[in-house]
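example protein:
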Amino acid sequence: MDPYDWQIVKSTPLFGAMPDAAVRDIIGDHGPRPFGKGQLLFQQGQPANAFYVVCDGWVKIFRLTPEGEEAVVGVFTRGECFAEAAMFLGGQYPASAEVVSPARLLRVEGTALRRCIHAEPDLAFCMLASASRHLKLLVEQIEEIKILSGPRRVADFLARLCPRRDGSCVVDLPYEKALIANRLGMKPESFSRALAKLRPLGVSVNRDHVAISNVDALFLYAESGEMTPERLSLH
């Protein structure tokens, strides 16, 4: 594994608190491998025998509703790991995982992680830290859906993609708009309307590219809902 990928692995909540020797023992000689968009990593109910670290790209975790619709549980990107807790929850994946953009993923075998935890029980605290982070993100996602209006949810999503908090910038939508809408608890048409309502804040969309002329105003609206009189059309 090259230094770039090693740095990504060590930035994850799970491996960041572990000694380097333990991480190398768990990973072994494996390195990240490429995955294509649309590739299914595992399905709900299958034996949970591995978890993944995202080195590049995006992966969605989803469940199917009784009506057969997808409910997106989470979307993961570089520096995040997923499915590590599933190996300790009855031995089955509670959801499915699909690659939603070209990606490089490190697959980590569950047997290696369990072996190291048996040898060094303190490593279980690292598992708790990672599971706690996932729970915190899920709670924040539910809270956001319940409290924030559609335009503010979209503004918050775009703000997280911005490389700075002021000036102007252009960001690329990381995956298709329908998935973004699902992730934000919205219908695709509601997502499009919310984007349109952000135009007074200097937000314009051209296919998968979003130009933001006033990043500071976008952050202000996302965080507090505050706007100047000329932006009252957002109500």
Observations:
- Confidence is low (pLDDT under 50) at residues 229-235.
- Residues 148-234 form a domain with the Arc Repressor Mutant, subunit A fold (CATH 1.10.10.10).
- The radius of gyration is 19 Å.
- The chain is about 40% helix and 20% strand.
